[in-house]
Amino acid sequence: MTSPHRPTELLAQAICGVLALRVRSRGLISTILRATLEAHRDFFAVWCAWEPNAFDGRDQTFPHIAGHDATGRFVPYWHRGGETIQLATMIGYDQSGEGDWYSFARRHGQVCKIEKPFLHPIAGKLQWITSEIAPIFEEGAFVGAAGIDWTAKPPPRTDPITPVVSVLNRSTTSEKLGRLTTREREVYYWVCQGKSNEEIALILGISANTVKNHLSPIFQKLGVENRYAAALASREADWIKPPSSSLPNARI
Questions:
Q1: Phi, psi dihedrals of residue 163, rounded to the nearest 5°
Q2: Cβ-proximal residues to 186 (8 Å cutoff; 6+ apart), any chain
């Protein structure tokens, strides 16, 4: 079960809280990152990285600005540079091998870590670090990742190292449910009641094909293969109840 007290998770939750308020301020998120680093002297760096245009749809406005790459993606990296805290731009997160940690968090949707010290270029210098990474979700969709780096001693062998990434803790079913959109929760509830796609379509006032299209992301987010496994997963949740928006039409 994922601990609610891991600093990386708390960082991601703070960012998700800002998103929930419909606030789209890159400056505010950057301030949160810096303040987190200032408050924890054992951290080497605090950062986040976003999918293209996922933060505010304005990547084209920010290319090459501090904390952004050439595409304008929001990738601020606050780190300790000597006696001061400095802002750099993350690199390598979109590259196979070097950036496996980002693709791993996106693919698994779980808090993960880099198992062994990893040699990473930071502001033109190479630094051995270890990291924890937490995915950021908005309305059930992966939009980016937040992370914390710590300095580390070089491993006994100093051959070129590709990050070795693993899931730190598996999420509970209740946490996975939190990734579902409102409509996906509605469809999921009626799946758990044993309703067919046609019956769910009638209840929700949508087409059976739309219901079918919702099932694939529901299964992916819950980590199951089919509707029967999805229904069984609901038994592990802290709660499962009908979404209120479904009730007025629920006559089946």
A1: -55, 130
A2: 204, 243, 245, 246
Residue recorded with tokens 């605090």 = 46
> What are the pLDDT digits (tens) for 57-94?
999 999 999 999 999 999 999 999 878 999 999 988 88
Secondary structure in 3-state letters for 28-46 = HHHHHHHHHHHHCCCCCEE
pLDDT per residue over 118-153, tens digit each?
A: 878 787 788 888 899 988 888 667 899 999 999 988
Helix (H) / strand (E) element for 12: namely helix 7-20
Calculate the alpha carbon distances from 178 to 212, 219, 238 in Å.
20, 13, 11
Q: Torsion over CA of 214, 217, 219 and 225, rounded to 10 degrees?
A: 100
Q: What is the pLDDT of residues 154-165, one digit of tens each?
A: 877 655 566 667
**Confidence (pTM):** 0.68
Domains located in the chain, CATH noted: 7-171 (3.30.450.20), 175-249 (1.10.10.10)
With tokens 């199951």, the residue in question is 224
Is the Cβ–Cβ distance between 110 and 101 less than 8 Å? no
- CA 236/CA 217 separation, integer angstroms: 19
